[in-house]
Amino acid sequence: MPLILYIFSTHQLTRSINPSLSLSLSQAKLQRPEFSAMEEGQAITKTSYDSPGSWKKKGKGGFRASGFIFALSGLDNMGFIANMATMVLYFYLVMHFNVSTASNTLTNFLGSTFLLTLVGAFISDTYLSRLTTCLIFGTIEVLALAMLTIEAHAKHLHPNKCGKSSCIHGGTAVYFYANLCLLAIGYGGVRGAFPALGADQFDQTDPVEAASLPTFFNYLVLCTTAGATFGVTAIVWVSMNKGWHWGFLISTIASTIGFVVLAVGKPFYRVQRHGESPVIRIWQVVLLAIKNRKLPLPENSADLFEMSDKASSVLAVAKIAHTDQLRFLDKAAILPKESKPEPWKVCTVTQVEEVKVLTRMLPILASTIIMNTCLAQLQTFSVQQGRLMDPYLGSLNIPTPSIPVIPLFFMSILIPIYEYVFVPFARKLTGHPSGITQLQRVGVGLVLSVISMVVAGFVEVKRRDECNKSPPYAISLFWLALQYSIFGIADMFTLVGLLEFFYKEAPVGMRSLSTSFTWLSLSFGYFLSSIFVNLINSVTERITPSKQGWLHGVDLNKNNVNLFYWFLAILSTLNFGVYLVAASWYKYKTEDLADSEMKPMAPNGVPLITNNNDMTDRSTQNDASVAFNPVSSAAEPVAKDNKAVEKTEAAVN
């Protein structure tokens, strides 16, 4: 339905394309024959956006367009978060998996979901617009949710208890796993393109809009939290009390409405059009760096191959300043003597720097994986712990999967406080437009995740000791709120920090791919959880006196889940040390411009920045405080007004 609605409205697409852009490109080719030759020979990435000026004239983008995106975020995450919280019980109670198999099935499903965000990101960066990508994968998601509803309702698709780790087989197994695969593809594809689609609505060359980007990500998480709050209360209650199929049906309807709303908002979006494949651009740099590995690097980085300033200005291609990190990749920008510049013979410095940016991001990505392994435990073992605890609050029976509503409630309050109280206060102290940098925000989340796992271990000790007494006593379910609340706050810091970091630091043509690194970290975390569960069981059953693993069987009262939590806490502490090293080594892309001798040019050839002293340390300064922004979604260095050009001309003269 969302895709059909979108296709029906495609006649409006030409309204979102700036006709003057194609005209200027044609004129440039006619007026500068040498430029046409260079365009054919060099690996030039044309901007894949409408020009910023046309955006403002047409009233596109901004928070008005984001309203449709926020609506989808809330509606779609109602079911997604509810399913994350309850599916381990669905696997355990309905599909009759044992404890570890139910946990691993959920973590493998979620790991696959977030891994498949790379597919959606790649398609939206290369072949389709981000909006089209969201709607195609959204249609697949809705279809899979409908199939899940049918499975939950049809008794003949439920296996009988068998006492084994898994009881499904034959046609039931085929339907079950095919459904999970479709659901993972749909969920993953949407999330691979969705955050970048929202961030595209804010022009990074405009000081006001650039400063609004952190606010957008905070609101995006707030809307996700609001939808999740409804999901883990209303939808979970319906699933646990009225039937699983009713809960899945509500999720299906909510997601369908969300994607219809997203399609309806199409006339208001700044639609990114696909460009050159980021994978090909990365592969070109890697291959040429290997091919030229024996060539000496020039002493002056200005001798490396790069497009001209005029070509950059006319085509609105953002040139990235050269950096001294990862110098071996610079060999891809060495043009052999008597060779003509061709895409597979030489890369531009900008193209090499794009690969450097992504490479510098990898240690940051790797050091957040353990935190997401901890998150997986709150969606598996903590939910199963809750089944053995007292679910009553007075006379009200609280379903175990609804416990996350407590941290979600705190997040709903803390996000506005963070945005309107903490950020202005911290901004006065640090001078940074977001109060603290994205990497500092992630670091706070990593510390809180360690505390959450320590608390989870102590809560499990208390729960198990009370249950093993004679007579047994079940402690209140709300003891779990401690670990959930701490981790919820950690997630608020880390998720927003990573989304903003990967989007702002990424090259323009790779922003979907880069933003999906956030979900890739989640994917690896869930897969690592499955590996840890199996590995810990295998090792501990050999070394413990009882010859039983920490997480064996179906009875948590005879297990040592607390030791597993503390193992993750120790691992997370060590991981935080690795993160500190990675974060201190990382150099923000916006700092490169200040350190470089390369100066961006306005279309008339006048430098927009007359000297390096005009810019302070960009890691603590608003990216939009000068006319040129290297993180611009439009990638177009343009003077803000005629007076600005006159001032720079006077400075040069």
UniProtKB/TrEMBL annotation:
Membrane-spanning intervals of the chain: 67-93, 105-123, 135-154, 174-194, 215-238, 244-264, 402-421, 442-461, 481-503, 515-536, 563-586
Protein's membrane topology: Multi-pass membrane protein
InterPro entries: MFS_trans_sf (IPR036259), POT_fam (IPR000109)
GO molecular function: transmembrane transporter activity
UniProt keywords, alphabetically: Membrane, Transmembrane, Transmembrane helix
Localization (cell): Membrane
Chief subcellular location: membrane
Record family assignment: Belongs to the major facilitator superfamily. Proton-dependent oligopeptide transporter (POT/PTR) (TC 2.A.17) family.
Protein name: Protein NRT1/ PTR FAMILY 4.5-like isoform X1
